[in-house]
Amino acid sequence: MTKSELEKYYRALETMFRSKGWKSFLEDVLKNANDLNILETCKDQKDLYYRKGQLAMAASVLNYQALIEQSKSDNLDESDI
Fold first, then answer.
1. d(CA 31, CA 11)
2. Which pTM value belongs to this model?
3. Distance between CA atoms of residues 11 and 15, nearest Å
4. Residue 32 and residue 34: Cα distance in Å, rounded?
5. Are the C-beta atoms of residues 59 and 30 closer than 8 Å to each other?
């Protein structure tokens, strides 16, 4: 991607991160992650591994904004060199 394309990409994501919909989505994901993290309700080992996968996905979503911000910093700094 060119620097201009990267800037447009990051601007679009920043707009999304500021939206009420994104904030509501993160609240829902966090609530679901907290509910999944109650291990006493696991029925068996299969259920435990299923929850582990769901929690990994929730963590990815919850950390997405920070990951994008770091990526933006890294990529735009590198393209200035």
1. 28
2. 0.82
3. 6
4. 5
5. no
Decide: 54 and 37 in contact? Cβ < 8 Å.
Answer: no
Total number of domains in the chain: 1
Burial class of 10 by CB neighbour count within 10 A (0 to 12, 13 to 18, 19+): middle
Hey, what's the torsion of the CAs at 11, 14, 15, 20, to 10 degrees?
170
pLDDT tens digits, residue range 13-56? 999 999 999 999 999 999 999 999 998 889 999 999 999 999 99
Q: Which residues contact 3 (CB under 8 A, 6 or more apart)?
A: 76, 79
Query: Per-residue pLDDT for 75 more than 90?
Result: no
Residue 74 to residue 51: CA distance in whole angstroms: 33
Domain that holds residue 62: 3-79
